[in-house]
Structure prediction request, 312 residues.
Amino acid sequence: MDRTFVQASQRVKSLNQALRNQPEDALKLAGEVVRELVDALLGEDGAALHSINGKAADDAYLHPLNVTVLAVMLGRQLGYDSEACHSLGLGALLHDMGKLEVPSKVLLKAEPLTRPEQQLLQLHVDFGLRRGQQLMLDDEVLRIIQEHHEYCDGSGYPRGLREAAIGRLSRVVSIANAFDNLCNPLNPGEGLSPHEALALMFKLQRERFDEVALKAFIRCMGIYPPGSLVQLEDERYALVLGMHPSLPLKPTLILYEPKIPKNEALIVNLEQEPQLTIARSLRPAQLPPEALEYLNPRQQLSYYVDPRTSRS
Prediction:
């Protein structure tokens, strides 16, 4: 599973490099990554969503991959067919390619951007659209690149579009993109847990997003999204590793067991352990330091799908 993810993230890294010099090769690579993902998610039983901890690849390449995984998973939840999911995945994977033309000192600046820097960063949408047109991408893919920062309440950019004026696939990518930016900001110390990010989007930002798609996203991320810290009824601490959308209360966990070395940590699937149940979701600060260090909940939260996880 981790190997599959690392291979995909390496291909996304190659994709970014190829976009500069060999754009046709880049499109072929993008198509392969998306096709594998769509096949896995639209398979007979769907796929389990997993979180992957640590820096499995260069951070810069994790964001487009995360957004692609989450957007295609949401597309499946919304009942999109294979063709729509492929356009969705391709648009998600390429949504930020205009950032190749934004100086890294702006992209990587941890302090708040000045107004001119903010305006320059926002131009990545126009740069990406122009590059996509040169590559003769499909209209639906171009629309995602152009609209992934538009919000249903009109507060987005570049055109301040509202509701139905934003393409249906763009509205899906907007949700996945916003969620990943909340969990994985430039400054890791400001990152929210997946549970907190979903709560914020639903309680405080609901007007920004397509209502049906946001509710579907919360449903398929589960009550305890992968990457969340939890406490069991028996008071043990655990990290949510993966979940199947049809079993939101029965995720797979890494258990904190101080007597067991961290590199041999116990992994339990609650679907197969009916006596174990989750009592609550926790913030990192609520865990003892040794439990937090053992579970290592986030350096960079990455998502991928495991097509081999099937239910009996």
About this structure: The beta strands are 48-52, 229-232, 237-243, 252-255, 267-269, 278-282, 302-306. The chain has two domains: 2-221, 229-296. Residues 54-58 have pLDDT under 50 and may be disordered.
